[in-house]
Amino acid sequence: MPDSSNIQQNTASVEQRIDAIEAMFEARGMKAREAIDEFEHTIEEKWIPENGARVVAKAWTDPEFKKRLLANGRAAVGELGLTMPPHHRHLVVKENSPTLQNVICCTLCSCTAFSIIGLPPDWYKDLEYRSRIVRQSRTVLKELGLDLPESIYIRVWDTTADTRYMILPVQPEHTKGWSEEELAKIVTKDAMIGVARL
Ligand code: FE
C-alpha cells in the first residue's frame, strides 16, 4: 500500500506549482507573465469603484439619465464610456429610498458588476455573508455597521453569472446642489453593494 504521508511531503508548494505552470506557458511561447501583469493593471486601474461613483453622481443630478439607468443599466453606463464584460449581459440598478434598503450578494460565489463598482471585498466572498445576508439581513447589516430601524424594508438581490446589480444610494440631503464631481467623491463601494447608507 502506498504511504500517503510520503505523497503529502512530495507535493510542491503553491509557488512551485505556479512557477511550473508559468514555465510551461513560456516554453510554448505564451506570455503568461505579461498577461498576468496586464490583468493586474486592469484590476487596479480600471475596475474601480470610482466608475460606479460617477454613475451614481450623474443619476443624482440628471433625472433623465437616472430613468435610462434604471431601465437599462448596461446601456446607461455605456453613455459614460464604461464597459462591462460580454457575459455581464444585464446591469440591474436598484434604487434605495428613505424606507427601502437594497443589498446585493452572490450566494453561489462572488459575482459583482466589478468593472463598475470594483472587485468584491473579501467579506462579500465569505460563505458567512453569502448565506446569512439572505436569512438574517437586518442582523448582518448591523454587524457591518448599518443599524437600520424596523421601518426600513430590506430587499436582497442575488447576483447570477449574467445579471449583475448595483445599488443607487439615497443622496444625502446636505449634498443637494453639489457638482457631479463633488458628489462622486462621497459614493463608496459599500454603498453600491448596499451595506452602507451615505
Ligand atoms: Fe458569484
Provide a concise account of the structure shown.
With 198 residues, this protein is α/β, with parallel strands linked by helices.
Written account of the structure:
There is one protein chain. By secondary structure, the protein is an alpha/beta fold. It has two domains: 13-45, no CATH class; 48-193, Nitrile hydratase alpha /Thiocyanate hydrolase gamma (Nitrile Hydratase, Chain A). It has helices at 4-9, 14-27, 32-45, 49-61, 63-71, 73-79, 114-117, 122-125, 127-135, 137-143, 180-184, 189-193, and strands spanning 90-95, 100-105, 153-158, 163-168. The strands form two sheets. It has a two-stranded parallel sheet. Helix 4 (49-61) packs across helix 5 (63-71), helix 5 (63-71) packs across helix 6 (73-79) and helix 9 crosses helix 10 (137-143). The chain starts with a helix and ends in a 5-residue tail after the last helix. The mean pLDDT is 94.
Ions, cofactors and other ligands present here are: fe (iii) ion
Q: Assembly state here?
A: single chain
Specify the helix fraction band.
40-55%
CATH architecture of the largest domain, please? Alpha-Beta Complex
Supply the CATH superfamily name of the largest domain.
Answer: Nitrile hydratase alpha /Thiocyanate hydrolase gamma
Number of strands: 4
Please outline the major beta sheet. Answer: 2 strands, parallel
